[in-house]
Design goal:
With about 230 residues, this protein is of the alpha/beta class. About 40% of the residues lie in helices and about 15% in strands. It has ten helices and ten strands. The strands form two sheets. Strands 3-2-1-9-10 form a five-stranded mixed sheet, covered by helices on one side. It has a five-stranded mixed sheet with strand order 4-5-6-8-7, with no helix packed on it. A hairpin with a 3-residue loop joins β7 and β8. The chain is globular, with a radius of gyration of 18 Å.
Length: about 230
Amino acid sequence: MVCAVGDIHGQLKCLKRLVERFEENIQKYESSQEQMVFLGDYVDRGLEVRGVLDYLIELRSRRKCVFLRGNHEQILLNFLSNPDVGEEWIRFGGLETLAAYGVGFNLLRGTDIDWLRIHDQFCSSFPEEHREFLESTDLCYSAGDFFFVHAGIDPARSFSDQSAHDLLGVRGKFLNNKDVREKIVVHGHSHVTKPEIRPNRIGIDTGAYATNVLSAVLIWNQNISFIES
């Protein structure tokens, strides 16, 4: 049994409820082999980012897990190396992550923001364990007839020849493509009101940071079903 989890974005309560429901399904179907695949975007937009990373790190000690990287993890890692990325980061959710690690909103007021100061404060409060966890994430994962990734793929390329740019951030050319290939792509990144199944892909990002609904797909003996928090 494989459980692939959509974009979490700092929603710790949703994450805990979803894991509980997955564990209920393990008992229900009496599965002896199970695995969780997290599709990325653990950080930003929600205020419990720190708790989410702590929980995921703890979870891997008792469950078989694969952690993929989302575009939000990538820009956080970029900021750790380069303070100039800060302005771009806060435009799509970094503000909440900074706050989760104690970086005050007072430092972000006005137009002349001291990003070097913010960078130094964030680096000093961001646990090394969290950084190592994010750096260890993978860009994609393949299992059986399924290819797991944060955003999607470039339909013009083989699965083994994808760019990090597309795996982390592709939308239109992937979402609009209807070609059926040798593997079904399971992805997050692009919001849907409810999980959707297409012949070539399964999308499970239900916008947890805005809806409080975190979704996952269960794949068990070629059967596909969904659970949500």
